[in-house]
Specification:
It is a single chain. Helix 2 runs antiparallel to helix 3. The chain is about 75% helix and about 0% strand. The protein is elongated and about 55 Å long. It has ten helices and no strands. It folds into two domains: about 80 residues, no CATH class; about 140 residues, no CATH class. It is mostly helical.
């Protein structure tokens, strides 16, 4: 996300900080051998998802619920590792749901939003490509979420931390770059943004923009 985008949406900086602080706290709890400290990660993750002062009722419920669950996690620290995996599985299910007849696939929604922001139109022949990649991302998120959930269930905090903070980001970046390169090869006549510009445009999208 660019500095200009953060300036327009100051809450985005807080949410990003909370998101980065969540695995850092899990790491600290692991290093100090104080698993109960993991409970503090739930409010951080909630802030990353809905912000510090959500205006909508669902966001308020998530934030308040995280504070209640924090008290439970103090006694059951392994529960603090579950949210990322469950969130990935939920997002995977949502991606899959957009493949139903009459729905616009998620990748097509993202592409249309980016093209509209840049004053460009999408090429119709690329629509099957976007549908296929929506399915691909649904499967990939299912794999990532499944592994994260399994590691959380086994309370393998060290491996979970490695999977969430190192392996998963590498998978995301490799998939985005791979799709970009394959798309350039599949549609050589289309106009393509430079890779850095492409990634910056994706980073500027907020979840609520593509879930309406």
């Amino acid at each position: 996300m660019s500095a200009a985008s953060l300036a327009r949406h100051p809450s985005s900086g807080l949410r990003l900080t909370a998101l980065l602080a969540y695995p850092a706290l899990i790491c600290l709890a692991l290093l100090l051998e104080r698993p109960e400290l993991r409970s503090l990660g739930l409010p951080l993750l909630a802030v990353a998802l809905v912000g510090f002062r959500p205006r909508q009722r669902p966001g308020q419920v998530v934030l308040i619920g995280s504070l209640v669950l924090m008290l439970v996690v103090i006694n059951f620290p392994s529960l603090a590792l579950w949210p990322p995996g469950l969130i990935c599985l939920a997002v995977a299910a949502y991606f899959g749901a957009t493949l139903r007849p009459g729905q616009r696939p998620m990748i097509e929604r993202i592409a249309k939003l980016v093209h509209d922001q840049q004053g460009r139109s999408m090429e119709p022949e690329s629509l099957p490509w976007m549908r296929a990649w929506t399915l691909g991302w649904a499967l990939l998120l299912t794999l990532i979420g499944g592994v994260a959930t399994a590691l959380a269930a086994l309370d393998l905090a060290g491996w979970w931390l490695l999977w969430i903070t190192v392996v998963t980001p590498l998978i995301f970046v490799a998939t985005l770059v791979g799709e970009y390169l394959l798309r350039r090869r599949r549609f050589p006549d289309h106009e393509h943004w430079p890779l850095a510009r492409f990634l910056a445009l994706l980073a500027s999208i907020r979840p609520e923009q593509v879930t309406r």
